[in-house]
Design a protein that fits this description.
633 residues; mainly alpha; 71% helix
Length: 633
Amino acid sequence: MNSLWLVVTALAAFAIAYRYYSAFLAARVAVLDDRRATPAHRLRDGVDYHPTNKWVLFGHHFAAIAGPGPLIGPVLAAQWGFLPGFAWIVIGACLAGAVHDFVILWASVRQNGLTLPRIARSNLGPLSGLTTSIATLFIIVCTLSSVAMVVVKALAESSWGMFTILVTIPAALLTGVWMYRIRPGRVVEASAIGVTIVLLGVFLGQPFAHSSWGATLLLSPTALKIALPVYAAIASILPVWVLMCPRDYLSSYMKIGVMIVLAIGILVAAPPLKMPATTPFVSGGGPVISGALWPFVCIVIMCGAISGFHALIASGTTPKMINKESDIRPIGYGAMVVEGFVAVTALVAACALEPGDYFAINVPQETPAQVQRYEVLLESHREHGQWDLTPRELAQLEHGTGEKLAGRTGGAVTLAVGMARVFTSIPGLSHLMAYWYHFVIMFEALFILTLLETGTRVARFVFQEALVGSAAPDAGASLSERTERKPHWGLNVGMSVLVCFSWGFLLYLGNLDTLWRMLGIANQLLATIALAVGTTYLLKHAARRVYALCTAVPFAFVLVTVFAAGGQSVRGWWTQSASAPSGEILLLRLAAVLAAIMLALTAVIAADALRVWYALLIGSPVRTPVSASSPPR
């Protein structure tokens, strides 16, 4: 099948959803009003609350939400064929993920930029507020450790990749200073300078890697596991305009630009999809993901369809920078459908590889036992005549990229190879495969690093709100108290270090297979919590209560799906720990315990939400605390 059909269908679906459904949400459900002052203006402090240009903030928000999920998830889900992942991405992004992001961003803007736990407390009650805070912190730690592992896999022993990533830091610093201090408001000038430096980093990476200095950036996996939490702590402490926002803005150019180039490459090369629509692994037992198609396709593909982590960004950094309410539509709904398109292109890139090459890259082959299992996989499918999984182009791909590809699990390498293959299939570009490959590796790492720094900052917000109350001043505070609000630097530093130590410890212990499934479960549990809170907010504040179905229907589907996957995973990890090597027993049992705790916390919140919904629908008074930070509608 030609991949153009998937690309054109996805573009049409996302365009229609944004044109009509997001307009309905903005005009009828949320009733966005630019006459209302946003928290960025009322509570401006120059650190977290800061009015930001719509497109600059779109770049930050997109960079923050578009972590590894829309890139890695579809690649891993290609094991089941191209059709299941494609259907889930398109339907999930339009009807669930984008609605989830929009509603939580709107609710947070209306409540002074408060985080999800504080919104839960003000709308559901103290029990759900406390439970959401605990669940959110658990989930953030699991999420950040999981995505950091992908960076470790992609950048370990890669001098070229490390050089290009490091160059983005001074590029972002200069962009931020230029945009806010040297030439305030000159977004185009700052963008041109930053993008030029980033591109120079990509092209100068190869000569640097082959120079005498190249060995200095050949970092081991252990070194990266230590360096990443340190970097995230520093980035999350600095004011948003110094590093985080301009870096996310620049990386969003690269992310969207690469996806546009890839889409053009697909249109020009029109690569056929080598992976079938469905594979024999739909019922389970796959070598990449052992679970069955349902519920695990909805767990493996997170950010491309619906992601709870987006709720942390939509109630964390982004609402504190919204300039006017009408910006919520393109940032909340629009960024999510763009991310859905990113996921579709990643799926196409993976499915354009020969199935044998795909599995050769994604099946572990580091130990003799793993090599033997891989050979058994090939032989069993060959004997039964189901599928010939013998690698066909792997040697050519390794020669073209200059890297050993067999057994490079995790999805990042597969995506880079698939995208490089699409680009180099265009006449005149075949000799550039190594450049394309390393460019995509850097591109993937940028996605994840922005998630690490933003996620750490959001976790700090949650900690601070739990310890000292709302991060925003009360609605009754005087104008001088609002405009002269100063950050608590000691608390900022302490909380950032604590958060980074927590996820860094799990990163140091973990492996990609266990951490990625933990990420999927944690992410979708958080989406369940956010949809429960969003439904409650709509029942209380929407013009008509029937509009609460916009989030209630996705809530029901995600709740059933994630509890099915979570239950299977907890049982599997605990059983596996009984016969696992000594070095993996602690990780497997820790994963099982953490997942069980998150499932229990989510069940409490879901039950409390149902209680509140029932009371609202029958007209009984609901006892929830009055939030002084919530301005009236």
